[in-house]
Amino acid sequence: MNCSLAQHERLHLKHRGHEAMHAEMVLILVATLAVAQIVLVQWKQRHHRSYNLVTLLQMWVVPVYFTVKLYWWRFLSMWSMFSVITSYVIFRATRKPLSCRTPRMVYKWFLLIYKLSYAVGVVGYLAIMFTMFGFNVFFRIKAEDSMDVGVILLFYGLYYGVMGRDFAEICSDYMASTIGYYSKGGMPSRSLSGDICAVCGQKILVEVDDEGLIEDTFQLSCGHIFHEFCIRGWCIVGKKQTCPYCNEKVDLQRMMSNPWEKTHVLYGQLLDWLRYLVAWQPIIIGVVHGINFTLGLE
């Protein structure tokens, strides 16, 4: 009895003051998160381009560090294949003069990545729900296995969804500026005629074997007309919410003719949130650990 009391007393003396230390660590965490959020928001508003480039670089490099460290070779192989193809697409998008086929090729690639990531993410989410509700038992699948598959697929879908949209935004800026109907910081260098699509620079009415071939078009609220594929690629995949020519605000909801297409807007917002979580959250936590270490908090 006396031995247990003495042991309890020693433990009490050892951990005396830890409550105050823990409270101080929580305050440091909350304060760091608040300051970091203010800094990131100001950076994004004042220097949007540099913020996106640094964030994209972190999104590209940070997961690779952990995959090499943890020997996740499956992810590394897919990341390498994605990086090689995307690098070629970016190379084509940044060439001058720009080939007339390049804008379509660029948007087709990133639209494919967008749709695949969306589908894989949905399948991963359903697999997680499938396991949480216990349906895996009916198929004699271990809960650990089905949950692992769901988490991996969800991560793949969200990660490559973010990467695809960020790279598509960079390519969109380069291509549109090269074509000349779009200028990010001022007036366009070329005047847009009524039969030209400002996204791809090609005629809306294309002559093929002396016959006119009219593609599906879409007219924005500002009155400018574009190929429907081009303007959807510009707004949904390239993350642009303004007219490629006059920079007027685009109503994305009006572009979604079918109810199920409106989920793409929510999916895009989810990807924007994930970018902050993956790219900046590890750095913020590292800063918190550094402050705690400097102050001698354990």
The gist of it:
This protein is 67% helix and 5% strand. The chain has helices at 2-14, 18-46, 48-70, 73-93, 102-132, 143-179, 228-237, 252-255, 263-279, 281-294; strands at 205-208, 211-214, 217-219, 225-227. Strands 1-2 form a two-stranded antiparallel sheet.
Structure description:
The protein has 298 residues and is mostly helical. The model has no long low-confidence stretch (mean pLDDT 78). It has a two-stranded antiparallel sheet. The two termini are 32 Å apart. The protein is built from ten helices and four strands, in the order ααααααββββαααα. Helix 2 packs across helix 10 (281-294), helix 3 runs antiparallel to helix 6 and helix 3 crosses helix 9 (263-279). It has helices spanning 2-14, 18-46, 48-70, 73-93, 102-132, 143-179, 228-237, 252-255, 263-279, 281-294, and strands at residues 205-208, 211-214, 217-219, 225-227.
Count every helix, treating DSSP H or I runs of 4 or more residues as helices. Answer: 10
Mean of residue pLDDT?
Answer: 78
Q: Approximately how much helix is present in the residues?
A: 55-70%
The low-confidence runs, each spanning 5 or more residues with pLDDT under 50, are none
Counting DSSP E segments of at least 2 residues, the number of strands comes to: 4
Strand content: under 5%
H/E series, N to C? HHHHHHEEEEHHHH
Structural category: mainly alpha
Major sheet: 2 strands, antiparallel
| End-to-end gap | 32 Å
CA-atom Rg in angstroms: 25 Å
For the biggest β-sheet, the strand order reads 1-2
Q: What would the principal axes of the Cα set say about the shape?
A: globular
Pfam families: zf-RING_2
Subcellular location: Membrane
Protein name: Ring finger protein 175
Membrane topology: Multi-pass membrane protein
